[in-house]
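Obj: model holo form, ligand = manganese (II) ion.
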Amino acid sequence: MERRAAGSMFLLLVRRDWQAAIARMTFESHQGRDTKLGQLPILRALPTKGRRMVGPWCFLDRYGPLSFTEGKPMDVAPHPHIGLQTVTWLLQGEIVHNDSLGSKGLIRPGGVNVMTAGAGIAHSEETPRSNAGLLQGVQLWTALPDAQRNGTASFQQIDRVPQVELPGGVTQVFAGTLSGATSAAQYHSEIVGADAQIFSKSALNLPLNPAHEHAILLLSGDAELEGERIDARSLYYLDAGRSQIGMNSQEGARILLIGGVPFPEPILMWWNFVARTQEEIAEARRAWEQQERFGEVSEYQGPRLTAPPLVRFAHPNPAS
Ligand code: MN
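Output (holo structure tokens):
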């Protein structure tokens, strides 16, 4: 009797484990980490301990919503980048970008700024004097593939990205192609990036490229991902091989979707640099500190950022 009871219990446990395994295969959640960008509180959703890249996306900071009456909550003095693209997407407010090429860009909600660092660029990002008193957005980076990472720096501003109306919501596409809409922003990997609004009491299904892995970040409101409630402090990762994703909302929501073909090269990330070797990072740091290679951001009023000491070194970032 006892042995039979134990046997049934064992089968029950096995079955539960199996069901849990199926649930885990559906998606992984990775909790973001609170930190600061100057005075601005941010949630760093990528990289995390458990997930360092999603396709070529290697960095995701979430900030706001916040309101202010004076000062500039966003004030990032001139700093250098190598080996990556910065992608700025706003939900509320304004940011002014200035860089060492002489580009100046005022970004507003609905538009995207893409800065390609290549072998080196410096830029500043700040709240303009004339502003709405609101700030909310995401700052993303893509890693450049080896063939492009030592190329020419450039800056692209798109005032209005394509928008697709779907049953249950509206999607704005700032990277790659989704639901037949293609962003004019230039990327160097197979990629997707979108901000999807889900209407209240609605379900939204987004078609996915099965060659891409993807991740979802809840930006506002309430949402269920494949029937499971998600929170705004975690990045939800979905393996490649899916042709669609289903979400729904009671009160309405906005979600960020990023994805791409799993990045085929291991990268090293340290401070504002994406590289392949520690020597490249040390050399980029030295050049910035010696005021070589990156040029000047002459439009910014104030001192530039100083590189941190090279003690806490980059983690190897195996291709995932
Ligand atoms: Mn930057």
